[in-house]
Design goal:
single chain; Cytochrome Bc1 Complex, Chain D, domain 2; globular
Length: 128
């Protein structure tokens, strides 16, 4: 019986330790390593419709000088976001790593939690 008790405590302690250290940060406003697939972890989504002005605010601060108010490429070197067909992951990659004359925006410039908002806002600029 003592033999099984030691197995029990070993398994219990191992399970507790793994559970404790795997909890991570459950704050929905801050995710690390943002990917487009985990937008629901960042935003409060109701019925599949996201309502937030944060993406637009950041776009106004960081992107409007080149891409224009409505995303129609105010600067000749900027992409026209109204006709862009790149997918969510490419939008995120372009923001983070830059492309041609577009500078990269690190997580210090646009935090992961805001990147989801910007990505979604950029998609709203597309012409139907």
């Amino acid at each position: 019986m003592k033999k099984y008790r030691s197995y029990f405590w070993t398994i219990f302690v191992a399970g507790f330790t793994l559970g404790f250290f795997s909890c991570g940060n459950n704050n929905p406003d801050k995710i690390s390593n943002y990917t487009p697939g985990n937008v629901k972890d960042t935003l409060h989504v109701s019925g599949g419709i996201v309502r937030s002005n944060r993406g637009e605010e950041i776009f106004q601060q960081r992107c409007i000088a080149c891409h224009g108010q409505s995303g129609n490429a105010r600067n000749d070197n900027a992409a026209n976001l109204q006709i862009s067909k790149i997918d969510s992951s490419e939008i995120v990659r372009t923001i983070r790593h830059g492309r041609k004359q577009m500078p990269m925006f690190s997580s210090d410039a646009i935090p992961d939690s805001d990147l989801a908002q910007v990505e979604l806002y950029i998609k709203t600029l597309r012409r139907k």
